Amino acid sequence: MSASQNPLEFAWLEVTGLCNESCDHCYADSSPKGTHGTMSAHNWISVIDQLATMGADDVQFIGGEPTLYPHLAQLIQHAHGTGLGIEVFSNLTHIREPLWETFKACGVKLATSYYSDSAADHDKVTRLRGSHMRTRANVEKALELGIPLRGGVVAVNQGQRVDEAVRDLLALGVETVGGDRTRAFGRASKGVAPTIADLCGHCAHEKCAIGPTGDVWPCVLGRFLTLGNVLQTPLADIWGGAQMTKVAADIAAVHGDGAQSCTPPQFLPMCGPCGPCVPSVGHCDPRAADAVTEVATIGAPA
Fold first, then answer.
1. Which of 109, 180, 183, 278 could form a disulfide with 148 if both were Cys (CB 3.0 to 4.6 A apart)?
2. CA 66, 72, 77, 78 torsion: positive or negative?
3. What whole-number distance in Å separates Cα of residue 33 and Cα of residue 201?
4. What's the whole-model pTM score?
5. Are 29 and 185 in contact (CB under 8 A)?
């Protein structure tokens, strides 16, 4: 499919593989041992400019934990200056006051993962003592500051109190709460190689992800399907190029051409049903559209 038929509207910008948490289900395999990769702040600014020139609408800064990336405020300010909409997907445990000010000044939206109303259950997932207390406190702070925030609850462990987690976020004033199951990517795969069949089929449909080494992927979960590298090739040449055409054909061969339109948009601004932490929908997999989800969702989005 050509770039004119499939315009690039949204990109995940994975600015770091460093995270202060070590969740067993992390699709990116990020942890305190992660790094910021080989992309410099100048490289990221170039990518943002390229996205704006290509007509993209929104970017989402992710990691790892993006607030641990030292140039995040600079990148947010630059993206805001180009007119891009901005969301930051954070665990909300490590936000300093100047970053809050940047969020407000640049109209940033936030998204976070929340695993239980129980601190012990939440911290068991993140493997970071005190993470529940800090995340919950910063959810409250974001809402007090008027910063839009959505939450996602991923079912990881038995007895995790995921329904209670949803109700807790709603009680705090979070208007959009989504749910997802653990997906077999990254550490959650437990060493099993990912396959195209594990994806949802929406990959590379008006969206892409760019990682800390410059690799371009069809989505955050499809990082085993590299489309190119922005340190070597302009993004406009990668998008709609020969390698992307091949990957899109491989995905369609497994999922069918209709996979991209079988479910409502979920991950901002128009992702299909893939994680992490989908927004408020009743299901998160085209092949399980009529099934009951493993966690409560609030009907209606990364």
1. 109
2. negative
3. 31
4. 0.86
5. no
